[in-house]
Amino acid sequence: MKNIKKFFLQFQQSFSLLFLLKWTFICLLIGAFTGSASAIFLWTLEWATNYREANVWIIWLLPIAGLIIGLSYHYYGESVVKGNNLLLEEYHAPKKVIPFKMAPLVFIGTILTHLFGGSAGREGTAVQVGGAIADQFTKIFKLNNLDRKIILICGISAGFASVFGTPLAGAIFALEVMLIGRIKFDAILPSFLAAVFANYFCGVWQISHHTHYTISTVSELTPATILWSLLAGIIFGLVSLLFSKSTHFWGKLFKKTIKYPPLRPVIGGIILAIVVYLMRTTKYIGLGVPTIVDAFHIDLNSYDFFLKLLFTSFTLGAGFKGGEVTPLFFIGATLGNVLIWFIPMPMPLLAGMGFVAVFAGATNTPIACTIMGIELFGIESGVFVALACTTSYLFSGHSGIYAAQIIGSPKNLFFKNEKGQTLTEIENKKSKKNIYHEKN
After folding, report:
1. Which of 51, 95, 105 is nearest to 75 (CA)?
2. 342-364 b/e with 16+ CB inside 10 Å = b?
3. What's the pLDDT tens digit per position in 393-440?
């Protein structure tokens, strides 16, 4: 037996085989639980959306939903209130396993937000559910800190892939989002395994939840269309920067003016309900999928993207739960829709480019968003999507919706001193400089 063991240990592939078997088993479990949880979540979310649209009066109860969410997190979920940022913090500085209560709290909070008329997404919920489920296996299998980093990536990958039906983008997103400009290569295989398994098990439930978007017309690749794509990417990047800043602005404003946390979503809910009533439309609340679909086919209002940006940043800043990604799809697609006014490219192509590029700039994940564009729209638009995503990533600067992201590789040499800092630290330093200049 010892001779057989020594024989196998002579080969590097022996260790690779053990690594493969270990993570295939773990990722199968993560994928099964997370994919199933995503299926239940998507079914519940669809029910909540349909019920709200059939009973618009329910939006007046949004403040009560806000109170329930606020009280739940204040008295029971204070340790998980950071959401996605907690996953990032535990990845960079492991302290303790993510409490499982993160999953039901964000699940219920998101459903309440959508049922009663808040503007939010679904990715944040899926990622947090996936991360909370995956991290429980850290205790079960007694994993070390290095393996724990991988398992957190797997949880994020599984959640993202299953809720959007994009396993390739989900796997790369989880790798890319942890450290801006860097990827943990030893987690590549587990991340893809978790994404594929989760997407499969979500599909086993036979719930139709993924909207099919199509780009019917693609421009010819010429120097002119390349330059137009770069210009569009710049605009998408600046808007993603505006979204990130707006979300942080509302969050800080609510914390500064309302000291008791559970009251923040109550006040926010009252304001949202009044605004929706006065506008006489539910277009800018919930996921906004119908408008996203329209962005690929018909002319939309020039202000649609901006109103969705305001509604979503205000909703999340007030303390409601959900995600930012689907609203970012809405913002990007409707913004791309109106760029046809001065960018001579097909409307469906510009909408598709904006769909993923604003997301890329806000999350600092240009590769994942490029792959997502290809998965959703087809390879024909791949070059234009890549140009828009990478340019948006560059022009969004060192900002983003995930404040705990760390700069692994600065976006350009002018900001090389910011390497190793979180987006929060960078923002705080800028604020201190501005205060200093104002005083002097």
Report:
1. 105
2. ebebbbbbbbbbbbbbbbbbbbb
3. 999 999 999 999 999 999 988 888 888 898 888 888 776 655 545 555
